[in-house]
Structure formats: C-alpha cells, structure tokens
Design goal:
alpha+beta, 14-stranded mixed sheet, 28% helix
C-alpha cells in the first residue's frame, strides 16, 4: 500500500533572498526531493513567478544554493528569510505585492490517515526590494488596508491538509472519481481569491494550501472495551460571508448568510493494514433564504425585521435549494425554528411588530416560499419542511423539547441515510496528487501505483447519504446549535450501530457519550457564533438539558447578549470590510474611492452581477418611533427574474514525525512546529491577476544581486452505568510525541474571535455593559 509519507507533496519550505529575487525551496516529508520557486523582486508593480520543474536531491540543492550565493557574494550572497509550511496567497493593495505564508502549523487530527493541520501563525512578506518607490507607495491608505486585513487572524479556526481535500465531506472524498478539477475554487476554500493568480499561472497547487474556515475537533472514545474516533468538522461558506447584521437572508445568486456545513465522522479503530470502517453524517445551517434585513441600533437590542416582498417568484430562494440538491442530493429536509406571531395586515402595508415574536413575519413568508417552490416540482422532489417553535416547546420543559427534536432528527435520518464504508488508510491521496500537479510532468513512471497497490486503495461503500438536513433560526446560532446536536446524537446511535458497537440507547442525556457529544457541539457553536456574531453562543438550552441552569449562567447569558449587541453595533462594519477585502469582494484601486469612503449600501452590494438587482429588492421603509413599527411599502409591479445556474460543491459529487522529532498538536492546545522568528510578522493578505509563470532553469541565469540587509539564519450506545473514557486529539498526539516544553503554545480555553484589533471605545462599552 502506498504510504502517505512517500507522496511527492511539499510539506516544508525555506525562503531565501537576494537583492533581486526570492527563492522558495520546498521539500517532501521524507526529504527525498526538493523543488524551487523563484519570485522576482525588481518590479514593484508586478508579481513575476518562475517555477523550476526539476526535482533535486539533497546534494544537488546544496550545490545549487552555493552557486547562487557565490553569484551574489559581492552583494551579500544568499540569505535565509524564513521557514514556512505553505503559501496562503498573494495580495496587492495600492503599492507592492505581499506574500502570505504559514509560519507555524499545529496538528489537530487525522482522517483516513491524512493529517489535518491548523494554522498557528502566519507571516506577511513584502515582495519588492525596499526602494524609494516602495517607500513612497507606503501611503496612509496602504497602511489602513494592511491594518484592516490584520483584523483577520488566520491562526484562529483555519485548517488545511496536504493530502486530503478538507473542503469536501468524507463521502465526496471517497466516492468522487473526477480528475483534474481545481478544488481550491469551491465554496469552502477561503483563500481561493488569494491563490487564484499563482494557481492559474503555474497550473498547479504544489506551493499553496487550501484553507477551510470553521471548526475541527477530534476525540478518541473508549466505551466498554470498544474504541472509536469521533470527529466533528464545520466548514463555513465564503459565499455571502460576513457579519450578523450586514449579512442576512439570501443574495441574488442563492447564497445565504452564515452558511455552515457540519460533518460528524465516526471511525472504528482496527489493526494497522486493515480497511477502516467509517461513517459520516452531514447537516447544514444557513439564514432564512429570503430578502430581509435588520438595522442595528444602540437603543434596540432586537432590531426590527424588514422583509422585502418584491421577489414574488422566490427566484433566489429557489436557486438556494437547487444548489443544495446539486451538492447533497434531491431530498432536502428543513427544520425551521422561528417563533410564531400574528402580524396585522393594513391595506398596502404590513405592520412588523418589533416585540417578542417578531420572527413570525419571516416564518410565514418562508412557508409561502416553500409551497410556491413545491408547486412547480414533482412530488418526489418536494422540499420537506417542519416549522418548529423551539422557544415555545422549551417552555413546557427542556427534556420534552429535546425529545421532539430527536424524533424529528430520527425521521430525517431514515429518509436521507448516512455514509458507511470500509476504506484503506490514505484513500484519495492519488486523486489529490493528480489534481495538485494538474498537467505538469512531475510524477515519474516509477511513482505510479501498481495494479496491486490500486486494488489495496479501493474502498467498499455500503451506504450513501442522499440528501441533507437543513436547520435555521433567526441567527442560525443558539437554537440551531441545539437542533444540530439532537440530529447529531441520533446520527451517532446509527453510526455506532453500523460499526458494530453495541449497547443501550445513545439518545439519553445522562449517557456519558451523549454528554461528550454535547460538549463538542457546544464548542462548535461557540466558534461559529464568534465568527458571525462576535460572541460565544448562548447556553440556556444546553444548561437546561444538563440540569445546571442557575443564576450564574443566567447572568452569563445576559452578558453574552449585551456583548453581542454592542459588538454588532460598533464593530460589524469594520469586520465586514476586512472580510470583503480578504475574499476579494473589494479590490483597492488607485484613483478610486477607498473601501472606508463608500456608503454602507455600496460596500454590501459590491459584487452584484446578476440580472436580479438586489438594490431593487431593498425595502423602502419609514420608521415610526411612537409605536415601534415598520411600515413597508408594497410595490405592485412584479420583477422579472432570471434563473441562474447554482454552483456545485459538497456531499455528492498517524501522527506526524518530523526531522526534529514528533511535535504536533491538537484542536485545543498543541505542540507547534517552531521556526526562527521574523521581524515582519503579520496576518492576512490578498492577491491579483498580474502574474507570469515560465519553466525551469533559466530562472538561475542572474549574474548577481545586491543586498544591504541582514538575513535570518535558516533555521456506542452505552448508558451512564457503563465505563466511558474520552481522550482529546491533544492528548493522543502528546502521548505519541517527544517534545520539549519550550515548544508548547499556550492556547486559551474556549473559542477566540479571528478578528482582533477591537477599538478601545468598544472595549469601554463592554465594560460599561458589564457594570450595568
């Protein structure tokens, strides 16, 4: 069987510099070959890349470095700049280009033998050699853009793998037989824009990594002498991504706000060399797919819901569900957790109550949209919806409400099934290599798998998931977390059954396995809430299920609500700007208004390109402060909508030992691969399309270069009466690693926002809120 460590994948890179060029030298994990990428530093306005297709041995690369150094000896020779673990991308604001690299990585888990890493530290490096022109280009606007991009902290909740398509579910990774597809362009790859230029010009992904933003936690479970690995992954979509009040509902392309795919994988441990029994279940969350919005107000923590009724044919809503069917299968099961109310209709105006159950305006319109869409499809393709007021059911008891959620999850699971198969360790690596190198003649004849090896890499597939369970509340955060946990718990019982792990029913809140799963889903909920709303998730319902809801936790939830309200009011706009630049929604240009000079409506509709004009879908409204109502005018004209083709991505379609010893980490606290420090450590960037790429050895034809700066040194279903033990990935890797304590990175417990640089004014508001 092919070993993952033997694959021709570049794992570690060292960046060297001369006055006129950067040389990025990468090697595979076993140090059997080296490759070189040359980056020109003489042009401050263009990014020129030159890739050498030659695969060098250790002796050859050593001699080559000496040769380059001798050619530049008069000007300082060849100096080591930094060591890294992959290119995140390139960015250009108004001045020079910058390169963003992974400075440190941490191991967070394994899937089918493929190692999954989290970004522990990133570094931004200016490409051109410092000159008068680059100094002049360092304007206040340039510094603002860099500061803005610094708000996106890549060391929080960004994950990648060199040999596994982490942007896809387990089912798609195993069942997909496509070749030559550019996977980095899919909806769950957040640095797609950053890497677009280098991928297009070099025609490979050898030098870059695909970053998935969301959540990853892996735990080893021991229950009555049975061992299995529980993995929960959340993948946040980059389409229509943003902050809570600036990204609501659906856009004209059918993408919804806060869209997150959650995958729950259970793997049975077997002796080495045997095929691995694995199961997975995928569910997703996303904002209500209608055109609606809310305007944050300092004085109103529950802003009015403004619904637009002009999209009478629900074109965008239909696009959204067509996209889900292409990604997951034809059966879409919807759990709508919105509250119930009875709004009044007055002639041509709708009165939107801003009170306790203001969500009902969305609930009713969502029901109408589903009925309208089902009316135009065959019965077997109908959307199946359950409108479940979780808050109302919660009033009659948390246990009763949770049982109803589990019953709904069980019914959904019986319809859409789950993925179950037996797969060899390292499956899918051949496709990753094929797609990584595209059409480049990198793989030699002797590296291709033999027929016996190909047979060993085959998987046995017994069951596939044929649809998806979609849940939402108003924010797709707190109530949705509970609903997804209920569905995950029901799925876990079915997964263990398929793996042959027997025992009493899993769906029992006192079951230690259920408690562990609840903890994982709470952690995921906190991470997703921090990313979208700037605070932890509310814990009221989870605490009620555990029976520990008390005055302390009530006050904690009040503080979370206040913190979320203040953060959304004062920080959402700047945070949205950072996301827009990171994802390429806004590209700075000389002579054009800066991002912060645009009106909020211009910033939020920058990339509307379809015929469905979202500006025409924004409601015209006036505010009545006396009765706290929104009067929404209804336009009698119906818009002509054009049906767009949805995009495709989704379900259908050991531990590392380095030369320095094993020092890897987990999803919580980890051992990181420490590298020499650099005087230029930043986080985040962007890239453009002005790239040129050519082949090979002419990249070394430079006569010499100058340098006046100093370089860095290279451096089962069992009740609570049974014994159950859980070991986090952190502990597993720690036991299998030999490392010194000075390599340990302290990571605070709980989720951390990836957005840093919060203003002092906001911090003061939070402190005042706590005092109140």
């Amino acid at each position: 069987m092919l070993k993952l460590v033997d694959l021709p994948v570049l794992h570690k890179f060292t960046l060297y510099r001369t006055r006129t060029n950067y040389y990025l030298i990468g090697r595979d994990e076993k140090k059997t070959f080296w490759r070189i990428l040359k980056i020109d530093r003489t042009d401050p306005n263009e990014l020129n890349l030159f890739e050498d297709p030659t695969r060098y041995t250790h002796d050859e690369i050593t001699q080559l470095k000496k040769w380059i150094s001798r050619g530049n000896q008069k000007y300082g020779g060849l100096r080591a700049e930094t060591t890294c673990y992959g290119i995140i991308g390139f960015v250009k604001f108004l001045g020079p280009y910058y390169m963003l690299v992974i400075k440190r990585r941490k191991k967070v888990g394994e899937i089918c033998g493929h190692t999954v890493y989290g970004v522990a530290e990133s570094q931004m490096i200016m490409i051109p050699y410092p000159s008068r022109k680059t100094i002049d280009a360092d304007s206040s606007a340039e510094r603002k853009y860099k500061k803005l991009l610094n708000m996106v902290d890549l060391s929080k909740d960004f994950y990648f793998s060199y040999t596994y398509h982490l942007m896809y579910s387990l089912q798609k990774n195993i069942c997909n037989t496509e070749r030559g597809k550019i996977h980095d362009e899919t909806m769950f790859v957040w640095n797609e824009y950053l890497t677009h230029g280098i991928r297009r010009n070099l025609r490979n992904t050898v030098w870059t990594v695909a970053l998935v933003y969301g959540f990853f936690q892996q735990t080893k479970c021991f229950v009555s002498d049975e061992q299995f690995i529980l993995t929960v992954i959340a993948r946040r979509s980059r389409h229509y991504a943003g902050t809570r009040y600036l990204r609501r509902g659906v856009n004209e392309e059918g993408s919804v706000a806060n869209e997150v795919e959650t995958e729950q994988i259970v793997t049975k441990e077997v002796p080495e060399g045997q095929k691995i029994p694995m199961t997975s279940v995928v569910q997703m969350r996303g904002s209500i797919p209608l055109f609606w919005s809310q305007k944050p107000s300092v004085f109103n923590p529950q802003p009015n819901i403004i619904l637009n009724n002009k999209d009478r044919n629900y074109v965008a809503t239909k696009l959204h569900f067509e996209n889900l069917k292409q990604r997951y299968g034809k059966l879409i099961i919807i759990l709508n957790l919105l509250k119930v109310d009875f709004p009044r209709q007055v002639k041509f105006y709708t009165l939107h109550l801003a009170g306790k159950h203001r969500e009902n305006i969305l609930r009713e319109e969502f029901e109408k949209a589903i009925l309208f869409i089902n009316g135009g499809t065959r019965r077997e393709n109908h959307l199946k919806a359950n409108h479940f007021d979780l808050n109302e059911h919660y009033k009659s008891g948390a246990d009763r409400a949770f049982k109803l959620l589990c019953a709904d999850g069980k019914e959904a699971l019986e319809s859409i099934n789950l993925f179950f198969g037996e797969v060899p360790s390292g499956i899918g690596a051949d496709r990753v290599i094929n797609d990584t190198f595209f059409n480049s003649p990198i793989l030699n004849q002797d590296e291709e798998a033999t027929s016996s090896e190909q047979e060993a890499l085959k998987a046995y597939i017994f069951m596939r998931q044929t649809g998806v369970f979609r849940s939402n509340c108003i924010d797709c955060l707190d109530r949705t977390n509970v609903a997804q946990f209920a569905h995950g718990l029901v799925a876990l019982a079915r997964q263990l059954q398929k793996l042959g792990i027997r025992g009493p029913p899993i769906v029992d809140k006192n079951n230690p396995l259920a408690k562990k799963l609840m903890e994982v889903y709470e952690n995921m909920g906190d991470a997703i809430a921090m990313q979208y709303a700037g605070s932890d998730a509310h814990i009221k319902m989870f605490s009620a299920l555990r029976g520990d809801w008390n005055i302390i936790k009530k006050n904690r939830d009040k503080i979370i609500a206040l913190r979320r309200h203040l953060y959304n009011t004062f920080q959402d706009s700047e945070k949205q700007n950072a996301i827009n630049v990171f994802l390429g929604e806004f590209k700075p240009q000389l002579g054009k208004p800066a991002l912060w000079e645009l009106r909020s409506d211009q910033r939020n509709t920058m990339r509307n390109s379809s015929n469905l004009n979202i500006n025409n879908l924004r409601p015209n409204h006036s505010r009545s402060f006396s009765d706290n109502l929104i009067l929404e005018s209804l336009d009698p004209k119906e818009l002509v909508q054009e049906n767009h083709q949805p995009s495709r991505a989704g379900l259908n379609s050991g531990w590392e030992t380095t030369s320095n010893g094993g020092w890897e980490t987990t999803s919580e606290v980890g051992f990181c691969e420490a590298e020499p420090s650099s005087s230029r450590v930043h986080s985040v960037i962007r890239d453009e399309d002005n790239l040129r790429g050519i082949g090979s050895r002419q990249m070394f034809l430079e006569v010499g270069s100058t340098s006046d700066s100093h370089g860095l040194e290279d451096a089962p279903g069992l009740s609570h009466s049974y014994n159950a033990t859980f070991i986090t990935a952190e502990e597993m890797f720690e036991r299998c690693s030999s490392t010194s304590s000075d390599l340990i990175i302290e990571v605070p417990s709980g989720p951390i926002s990836i957005f840093k640089g919060v203003s002092d004014d906001f911090a003061q508001w939070v402190e005042e809120g706590r005092a109140l």
